[in-house]
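Hi there. Long-time user, first ticket. I'm pasting a complex I've been working with (about 69 residues overall). I'd like to know whether the download I got is complete or cut off, because the file seemed smaller than I expected. Thanks.
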Amino acid sequence: MAREPADEPEPVRLRVQREGPTLVDGPVTVELDDGTTATSDRFRVALCTCRRSRRFPWCDTSHRRRTRG
Ligand code: FES
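Hi, the file is complete. Here it is re-exported in full:
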């Protein structure tokens, strides 16, 4: 039986930002380079791309430059 176009899943959409996390619609499971996985069931997930997050692979805003206040 041929698949109808309506049966095709929607492509996963990622939003890449110049500085900051990559945004993806959740839920997601991320496979890490050490073989572990991390899962988030949030509606929108921010993936850390700078590797400074204490909650890696999730962004914790550590990518932001610190300013003196
Ligand atoms: S991208 Fe936000 S902490 Fe790394």
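A couple of notes from our side: The chain has no helices and five strands. Residues 20-21, 48-50, 52-53, 59-63 surround FE2/S2 (inorganic) cluster (CB under 6 Å).
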